[in-house]
Amino acid sequence: MNDFNRSRFIEIGLRFYVVLSFAFVFAPIAASFIFSFNSDRFPSIPLGAFSTEWYRAVANDPLVWDGLGNTLFVGIIVSVVSTALGFGAAYTDFRYRFFGKPVYMALALLPPTIPVVILGLAMLAYLSRINLSGQSVSVIIAHIVICSPFAMAISRLRLSQMDPDLEAAAWNLGASEWAAMRYVIVPFCLPAIFGALFITMAVSFDEFAIAWFVSGLNETLPVKVLGFLQGQVSPRINVIGTFVFVTSMTLVIIAQILLTRQTRETPAKD
Amino acid sequence: MPADPYFKKTSTRKMLGECPKMRKRISLYSLTFSLPLFIWQVVFFVFPLAFLVALSFWTVKNFRMQPDFDTINWVTMYGRSIFWQSYGLTFAMAAAASVITSILAFPCSFAIAFKLGPKARQLAIFMMVIPFFTSYLVRVYSWQIFLSDNGIINGFLALVGLEKIAMLNTVFATMIGYLTLCFPLVVLLQLFSLMFIDRTLIEAAHNLRCGRLRTVFEVVIPSARVGLVIAALFCFILSFGDFVSPIYLGGGDPTTLSILITDTTKSGQQWPRAAVIALTMIGTLLAVAFAAIRFAYKGREQ
Questions:
Q1: Which residue in A63, B187, B221, B223 has its CB near the most CB atoms, within 10 A?
Q2: Is residue B55 part of a domain?
Q3: Is the residue at A193 inside a domain?
């Protein structure tokens, strides 16, 4: 390695830029956390006194609990169903080649790239036509559409780390296809399956736009936040925001630890 | 996409006549795994979008929608100057956002790819994935705290004795919102294309006494072009469809297409007109995506 193009100054500058980028990305999350404990009604600096009054206000708001209940209900069903669907599609892509596969893959992966306003409008119009709008189940249906591609991608990554001969070996030893799935493939993919469960739950937990279009009165927590935003400035949003951040960060961190641990345990193959 | 080794091996197995069970392609087993997602996405993704097309030809009479085949919605919407104004504005803002985000993200992804050790790089990727999955809505609200007239930034300016700057409800604030939405994803996509650049190319350039900046512009950027263009494309798609930043940071004025859709949908029964806007947006996005991918692969595969 020659040192012709190395400059300490630029190296330090670039590293500083990375730190600055992370500061920009995490500033809103940090601000939400700090101001949720601030006694002033209108957030600014200098800070007011430390206070947990907004937490108490939120905890005593039955609407927030309703929203949280809906969010959890929707999130758990969405994560289980979309992980199952996504895993099936990933396995299909891994194992089979068939006519029209590009179309299949497009259907499996495209939904998150469609702007949520458009998907929200399409879902609202379509679901109200078949009498499924304005309920929790409408949110569940729509969220599975956008969450299963994430589960599919995560499962597919894990499957590509698997030696394809493992499955064939199981068959040769007399296992049925179902038994090979049950005792070979699923155990191998377990970290990815859990990772997908957590990631899809985080996606559903944070999705507000489609939910806002189709939910009617069964609002999820993020839709409640959208309502708050339209109304008054209230430090309560910071409290809910902190809660939302902590929850989805926990989910994503667990998922990432699961997914990076698995790659380390499996020696890289060429 | 890495090549799947499975299929190559299948053919060897076929020759050896092993394992007859796997010959059957269409079986209860294969359908159990492949069909559920397919059915779900056809019924709840393709059908709604197709229905949107039909809906755009419906008519509204006495505040009730009825099935019809009338081009009135298209004619009405396309005849309005406000529609074309917001179309131009939305397009320009999304284009600006993808250029600005790409430029601001590049030094960051470059540094992560080339200047950090493996451990630090993994941590940086780990950290960039987190905001992608944390509530964008709440992050935008949080930017209000920073940017409002009595917010953090103006509070700080007052402390050091400077005048207030009006930042909320400006295009600048909307851009901050777009940046919040797209920056982590753009960094990640750029990063993945930069990490796969053949390092020997860069070393070769350096050995040939190619300067630092020139190496970046003539070796690194051309080699990573596909990833960089796709990152910018995703930024365009996300900002083009976003309605949160233009409303809550940009103040809703001037109106973007996404605001037009939410307003038209939530205020009354003018869904067919909203469908016209949505379809125009999809058409635009498809055209932009097609052009971007053509550009990304131009001269690549000959």
A1: B187
A2: no
A3: yes
In a domain, A212, yes or no: yes
Does a structural domain hold residue B219? yes
Sign of CA dihedral A193, A198, A201, A203: negative
Tens-digit pLDDT profile for residues B54-94: 999 998 887 778 888 888 889 988 998 889 999 999 999 99
In this structure, is residue B281 part of a structural domain?
Answer: yes
Give the separation between CA B115 and CA B117, rounded to whole angstroms. 7
On chain A, the residues whose CB falls within 8 A of the CB of B42 are 107
CATH number where A90 lies? 1.10.3720.10
Task: Give contacts of B138 with chain A, Cβ < 8 Å.
Answer: 28, 32, 222, 225, 237, 240-241, 244-245
Confidence of residue B8 (pLDDT cuts 50, 70, 90): very low
Contact between B2 and A160 using a beta-carbon 8 Å cutoff: yes
The CA distances from residue A244 to A60, A203, A225, B96, in Å, are 17, 12, 10, 30
- In the predicted model, is pLDDT for residue B280 greater than 90? yes
- Residue to test with chain A: of B91, B133, B179, B293, most A Cβ within 10 A: B133
Whether A4 is in a domain gets the answer no
Residues 6+ apart with CB under 8 A from A141: A123, A127, A132, B44
Phi, psi of A49 (to 5 degrees): -80, 160
Are the Cβ atoms of A29 and B134 closer than 8 angstroms? yes
Residue range(s) defining the domain that contains residue B234:
82-297
Q: How far is B209 from chain A (nearest CA, A)?
A: 8
Domain encompassing residue A113: 62-265
For residue A171, tell me if it sits in a domain.
yes
Domain count, chain B: 1
Number of structural domains chain A divides into: 1
Contact A2 B207 (CB under 8 A): yes
Instruction: Supply the CATH number for residue B224's domain.
Output: 1.10.3720.10
- Which of A94, A213, A251 lies closest to B4 in CB terms? A94
Per the CB < 8 Å rule, is B116 touching A18?
Answer: yes
Q: Which two tokens stand for residue A154?
A: 């995560």
